[in-house]
Amino acid sequence: SGRLDLDGLRIVVTAGGTREPFDPVRFMGNRSSGKQGMAVAAAAAVRGAIVTLIAANIGTDAVPDGIAVIDVSTTLELEKAVQTAAGQADVVIMAAAVADYRPAQVRQGKIKKEATGDRLTVEFVVNPDILAELSAAKHEGQTIIGFAAETEPDPATLLELGRAKIARKGCDFLVVNNVGWKTGFATDDNDVVVLNRAGDIVMEVSGSKLSVADRILDATLTGV
Ligand code: C5P
């Protein structure tokens, strides 16, 4: 957009997807490419923000100069990094796909088929909800933005899910992203609805992830 309207604003963006190991070579993960979060970080930096990108299992070679990158892998690592960074942040944008569960134990050695027989059971425990924690702990003037990836084909039901989610998480805005339709994970385009705390739609936008990123920043930070 060619304007420095976010000049000096401190923004923390999480992107990618967390991985939860259960032995030294295996993990449970998700299909988040990190593209939308990266686009938000890049767009904010172009507009003058001081951006920290917390990158969960994504290539960060293409991250523009001037963006501080913190690499993490597990949900607990992401939690620690984002909580530390959030203390100084005006805005936290939780675009990462965070695993809801992690294995209850991580084996020291690789699990062997010879040892398990024809069935393997891995027990999971629930991870902290980082977005809910950040929202509960947010300081005066701080804006917390969550993302939701849903596979709901019915727009009215999708909206209900989004409204319930923003109420549950307590964040200021929720970017609802339908990964079940034509766009979503690992694509260059996206299709989102932005909700405010009251559950009102403040913006609906489709397009490239970079253009969607700019519009998300407009809707949540400049009120446009
Ligand atoms: O509940 P759901 O996973 O759909 O919520 C998505 C939003 O919550 C995203 O912003 C994601 O980064 C965040 N989240 C989180 N901690 C979790 C799970 C999701 O911060 N354990």
Summary tags:
Rossmann fold, 224 residues, 29% strand, binds cytidine-5'-monophosphate, alpha/beta, eight-stranded mixed beta sheet, 12 strands
CATH fold-level topology: Rossmann fold
What is the radius of gyration computed over CA atoms, rounded to a whole number of angstroms?
Answer: 18 Å
| Average pLDDT for all residues | 94
CATH homologous superfamily label:
CoaB-like
Hey, roughly how much beta strand do the residues contain?
A: 25-35%
Shape: globular
The appropriate CATH architecture is 3-Layer(aba) Sandwich
Unreliable stretches (pLDDT < 50, length at least 5) are none
Q: What is the count of structural domains?
A: 1
CATH level-1 class: Alpha Beta
SSE class: alpha/beta
Let me know the largest β-sheet. 8 strands, mixed
Q: What is the count of helical runs? A: 6
**What's the total number of strands?**
12
H and E order: EEEHEEHEEHEHEHEEEH
Task: Give the helix level as a range of percent.
Answer: 25-40%
Bound molecules: cytidine-5'-monophosphate
Reconstruct the topology from this structure.
Blueprint: E1 10-16, E2 20-23, E3 26-28, H1 35-46, E4 50-56, E5 68-72, H2 75-86, E6 91-94, E7 101-103, H3 113-116, E8 124-126, H4 130-136, E9 143-150, H5 155-169, E10 173-178, E11 189-196, E12 201-208, H6 209-222
Parallel strand pairs: 1-4, 1-6, 4-5, 6-9, 9-10
Antiparallel strand pairs: 2-3, 7-8, 10-11, 11-12
Helix pairs in contact: 1-6
Bound molecules: cytidine-5'-monophosphate (C5P).
